[in-house]
Amino acid sequence: MLQDRYDNGLTTASAAARDAYQAGMDSLMAATPGMDTAFQAAVAADEGFALAHISLARAKQLLGRGHEAKEPLARARELAAGTTPREQSQIAIFDKILTGQGAAALEAIHEHLKSWPRDAMALAPATSVFGLIGFSGKVGREVDQLAILAPLEKHYGNDWWYRTQLAFAQIELQMFDKGSRNIETALAAYPRSAHAAHIRAHLFYEVGEREAGLAYLTDWMKDYAREGLLHCHISWHVALWSMETGRRTEAWRVYDDALRPGAAWGPQINVLTDCAAFLVRAEMAGEPRQPERWRELAAYATKWFPKSGLGFVDMHTLLTYAMAGDRDALAKLIEEPRGATADLLAPLGQGFDAYARGDWTRAAEVLERLLATHERLGGSRAQRDLLEYLVTSAMLHAGRTEAARSLISTRRPQNGKGGGFPLAGL
Q: Could you tell me if 244 and 422 are in contact, meaning their C-beta atoms sit under 8 angstroms apart?
């Protein structure tokens, strides 16, 4: 029986199908362009290859084209009975993910790993800050992220994808030495992995090395195609560091060229969240508010995420509506909360609305209450410091300079290195 590079058996007799499937796996795990076309090539080489179909469906979802996943998902279901127990289990996991059953999918992954710990494709959806654990809405989910990965080290060794994901989990828990060793191991083995380069950027962020991080990503991005899954998001890191190091014209150029709706192809979750985060951070750094850009982004949010149920997405949608001045849309989202973090939407919306209107005391009061548990919202520490910056900025506007300085220097001590905190008035 043919196998993938993790020694898992594949129900196909076609070496060409196996090779194309493996290329798709590597592309998905490295966030390089072409994952969907590779899986399509695997299907073309062997139309009866069930894992090629289900992986194609998953690739479509990751690329923001979930509406195109129905046909390959249906075909994978039809073919599942003729595959191995491992493949049937993996197909069932992706079926749950593609049909919005995240909690059930995560439970199935835990069970699956007991029998097939080296099934990296089945493990992958549970990894990273945008995965099933990352978006679980749980307090302690950062520890849970490491807990699912660390016991598997004996099964993966120095595999570049595994080391990448392990490094991210460690860095999010401020285990910087271990995270640094693992991400360097991953990059040495697969230097063009966008996931690995992205996580290396997070390490630069966490230790306060803005100039070094900007130089690293600017150089790495030269050979990364716009079609890459992480092009928009890595560009966000470049834009932020450009803004924070005084290269403001360049920061806005990156925003208009690689982030904003119509410039970045997606995925839509990155376009919305990265644009909202950049716009409000630019304002906190001293740039004037951008009403037209906010209204453009509000229209995008309404089109793509009218009822997302993902706390991280809803947080940025609420922020966008507040800054765009669309209080009706803001109120509607607050009144119809969904998902595991539904209880956080009202205070988020109220705090963002107060900030947008210049009610600084109210904004600081409401948003500060969320800082203790904002990991529930999902996303990375580098993304969630947005809330800490907003509270600090509101305090500064309200004349509470010492309280503002104490809060941000206590919660994000490394962020003040290399030029100080990127907040006007601090």
A: yes
Q: Give the model's pLDDT for residue 416.
A: 76
Give pLDDT, residue 259.
Answer: 98
Task: Return all residues near 419 (Cβ < 8 A) that are at least 6 apart.
Answer: 210, 244, 245, 246
Sequence spans of domains, the chain: 15-126, 131-191, 259-416
| Sign, Cα dihedral of 257, 261, 265, 268 | positive
The helix/strand/coil state of 237 is: helix
Q: Residue 417's closest CA among 408, 425, 56, 139?
A: 408
Topology given in CATH for the domain delimited by 15-126? 1.25.40
Tokens 């548990």 -> residue: 373
Please give the C-alpha separations between residue 296 and each of 5, 37, 43, 328, 414, in angstroms, as whole numbers: 44, 32, 39, 16, 34
- Specify the residue for token string 């990156």: 254
Q: What is the pLDDT of residues 226-258, one digit of tens each?
A: 999 999 999 999 999 999 999 999 999 999 999
